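Quick one, T. Sequence first:
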Amino acid sequence: MGEEIRVDFNTGSGGGSGAGGSSGGAGVPPPPRVSGGGTGGEFDYRELVPSFIRTVREVILNPVNFYRGVPREGNFLSPVLFAVICALISAVIGGILGFILRVALGDGVGGSFGRLLSTIIGAPIGTLIGLFIGAAIYHLLVLLVVRPRHEGYEATFKALAYASAVNVFSFLAFIPILGILVVIAIAVYNVVLTVIGIREMHATTTGRAVAVVLIPVVVFGLLALLLLGAILAIIAAAVSQSQ
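Structure tokens:
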């Protein structure tokens, strides 16, 4: 009756044979189907709601087998739509909760509604821009770290796009007191899913996948600290001159 649910973080390499790439023809081919009406591991926009729910479940609970079943090339549309839907769900639910909270605190309905609309419109746009740029940065590191063999930019893009499944639950950040813990948990699990995705999509080791994912985090973290230090130094100098 019930389906067994387990979270699979198998640390073995997925290999390239588990999800052969689909042939690249003209236009955008549909996601491959398997027997039983499902898809070949990837989000199927033709079965929007059931496929989306299945994909989120598989990415969250069984990421290793999910990424092993994703074709490495031939279908940019599925991961793009999946990431956009995740962003929209998060923006709509979070935006509505924020709208209710701002109105309850006395903000004007007009201004609060304007923020809600800007959030819903801006979220998918920002998500797409961030995905393409982020995938480009990660793939540059894939070229440097995961060599001599890799599966191409599209595989890196899919690793990041499907890892965004965890963002569906970002509205939980509105939980009082526990909100910050939810944000941290989502951020950490997104990194974990990205590492698994890079490892399985490019058939590399966990160590190399961790290096690909964490190097940008460390670099941007150091840059942020340097920027913060410069800002504090400027503020301190301005205060000392005014005294």
